[in-house]
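Long-time lurker. I teach an intro course on protein structure, and each term I like to show students one example going from raw sequence to a predicted 3D structure in token notation. This year I'd like something fresh instead of my usual example. Would anyone be willing to generate the tokens for the chain below so I can use it in lecture? Attribution to the forum is fine with me.
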Amino acid sequence: MTIAEESHQNRGKENSRAAIEMLKKIEVSVMDQRQKDQKNFRDKLFKDDDTNENSAEQKSMKLHSDVWADFVVMTKVDKSGIETVVLEKMNLDSILDYRGLCSVLLDLRGNIKDLEVLLRDGFEQKLLQKIMVEVLPEWCTKDERQVASMNWLESKAVKDLQPKQLGGSVLLEGYL
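-- Reply from a regular --
Happy to contribute to a lecture. Here you go:
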């Protein structure tokens, strides 16, 4: 690896960390319908057990394991606390529902052919709401770093497009 390639790789990692830190700082002010439905479901499930917090926690854990027993193939947590989950059927709904989340960050660098189905389903179901594009200060023609063609993607206007300086790069954020 040349010094320039190593420098670019380090710069990319630093910019990715900065982008992730920015995402962590974004506060969601309004719960989406998925969160409301999950909250209502949990409230109904635990309404009789308000006096015993442990019982509610145990029910939640049991419900979580029962619901996902048929879908989760394998889970593994590494030393840094990152959980890897292999699902029987992977789509954005199952990823979000497994963790009880309303948002997830998809990093689309390199070959995204494996993620194309996720993206297509996400667009069709209107689950993708925000996009972030990092513009690097260099040109690269290596195949492994090019984004795959997404001819199926419909043209959509991006709302509230905002540029942000991120080291030597520019981060574009917008909403679909």
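Some talking points for your students: The longest strand covers residues 159-166. Residues 26-31, 48-69 have pLDDT under 50 and may be disordered.
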